[in-house]
Specification:
Strand content: 15-25%
Low-confidence stretches: 1-36
Distance between the termini: 17 Å
Number of helices: 14
Order of helices and strands: HEHHEHEHEEEHEHEHEEHHHHEHH
Shape: globular
Oligomer: single chain
Strand order of the largest sheet: 2-1-3-10-4-11
Mean pLDDT: 89
Radius of gyration: 19 Å
Helix content: 40-55%
Structural class: alpha/beta
């Protein structure tokens, strides 16, 4: 399998060096639930696979609402029985991949680019994608006083969350499609790419340090609340307006040793998505409640409502779009052409879906068999 490019390797190492301490301090890395409802164990419940706990990671983004809702409603704990559901929250993919590789988490919700990077950098040995979670929820939001059309983006400063992250790759690919040249590593060129943590991007936008941002929800709607305008919804660039924004990954060793625990988490995930799609208003409130517990502050309605509308929740990992996103990273010069064969193992998810009377999902030729 071709190795990750030296460019991305250096960028990834730098990101890993800088981010974990921030995550540890500010994001509740390894933190236990503050919501007693999420950790109640039913009377007579038994441990799964003899495990004391299963460690679950996710981001404080609405694009990770499957995990937010599953936690807030206690669905993971219900399925895990007397095995405790432990949680850790993250700001960025590299720190979550590091946590997965070190065994600090077992299963995580994460974007496609970090999953691809984690898989390729380990020569296919670190993780498997075991399910889908969400599509959409990414927008290019700009200052309308400086940018009134797509062509006006040229020459401006546009924020993305991190070098090589999912939105960074998407923006670099879109800029290349406009015929603009940008050095992926430095972010300099016909457009200046400013790598900015989603937590600080709204302040940078308000201060005029950036002219726009290609970001996930709820950051995009926070920028709109600060006077920004949605110039482009990324979903319009994809067939059927669907593309993977959040996957579920697992440590390969954990999958091999504890398939029953993995199945329990996937059952909870499928149940969460089913409930989200059947009860969108209640689900929106539940996700926001958990965001408030995790961060100390819930989202206001003028941010929450438009953000929620742009996200689709699905168990399908939309595998063909992962392959396309990898091709975008290659085109941007961030990745050597990877061999992603085997990155998916959807066996347990399809077992869960079949038991629920739902159709199986496909790995687009990138599965284990």
């Amino acid at each position: 399998m071709p190795a990750i490019s030296s460019k991305l390797f250096r960028g990834g190492i730098a990101a890993l060096a800088a981010l974990p301490l921030l995550t540890l301090a500010a994001c509740g890395y390894g933190s236990e639930s503050k919501n007693d409802e999420t950790t109640k164990v039913a009377a007579g419940a038994k441990k799964i696979d003899g495990l004391d706990s299963v460690k679950i990671g996710y981001f404080g983004n609405l694009t990770h609402a499957t995990a937010l809702v599953g936690r807030e409603r206690g669905l993971f704990q219900k399925e895990l029985g007397a095995t405790k559901a432990d949680y850790a929250t993250f700001n960025a993919g590299p720190s979550e991949i590091e946590a997965l590789n070190s065994g600090s988490i077992d299963i995580g919700w994460i974007g496609p680019s970090p999953a691809i990077n984690g898989y390729t950098k380990s020569n296919g040995k670190s993780l498997k994608i075991i399910g889908g979670s969400a599509s959409g929820g990414v927008k290019l939001v700009v200052n309308p006083k400086k940018i009134s059309s797509l062509k006006d983006v040229k020459g401006k400063k546009i924020a993305t969350p991190q070098l090589g992250n999912t939105q960074d790759v998407a923006f670099l690919n879109w800029a290349a499609d406009q015929g603009w040249k940008v050095d992926a590593q430095s972010g300099k060129g016909d457009v200046t790419v400013v790598r900015s943590d989603n937590k600080v991007t709204p302040d940078a936008f308000k201060a005029g340090s950036v002219d726009g941002a290609w970001v996930p929800e709820p950051t995009a709607s926070k920028l709109v609340a600060e006077g920004g305008k949605v110039l482009l919804d990324e979903s319009t660039l994809w067939p059927d307006k669907k593309f993977v924004i959040t996957n579920i990954i697992v440590r390969q060793a954990f999958l091999k040793e504890h398939p029953k625990a993995v199945e329990a988490v996937l059952k909870a995930s499928v149940e969460a998505n089913k409930w989200i799609n059947a009860n969108p208003d209640q689900a929106k409130a539940a996700a926001n409640k958990q965001l408030g517990i995790d961060s100390g502050k819930e989202l206001p309605a003028n941010v929450l409502d438009p953000a929620w509308k742009s996200i689709q929740f699905t168990d399908d990992p939309l595998a063909s779009t992962l392959n396309t996103e990898a091709a975008h990273a290659v085109k941007a010069g961030l990745l050597d052409a990877p061999n992603l064969k085997g990155i998916y193992d959807l066996t347990i998810l399809n077992k869960v879906l079949k038991a629920d009377g739902d159709s199986p999902v496909d790995a687009a030729g990138l599965g284990t068999s």
